[in-house]
Predict the 3D structure of the following.
Amino acid sequence: MPRFMTVIQMDENVEYEDPGPEFEARMGALFEEITKAGVMLDTAGLAKTEEGTRVTWADGKVGYTDGPFTESKEVIGGYSIIQAKDKAEALEWTRRFLEIHPPHWRITAEVREITEG
């Protein structure tokens, strides 16, 4: 079965309010379901960019830039790696994940198949 990476993009400069215990319960139920279905392989949130470092390769030299990366409006806030029968199934799980969040939050999920070999 193909594997897919879902990259979650959020505006790091927006302070999202605590969505409350109902959100946590719904997210926990979805994670339990997707794990029992054998779909979820790995998932995690990421620290803010101020704690990160970008490493670049240009003109034969390696460069390092410590965060925060103020030129980036949306940053990667988390990821998941899932195993699904096809892209349609991967998109369905992603839709369900996004719909758990409060409707006024702005979150983008990019779903891409992991190439093998």
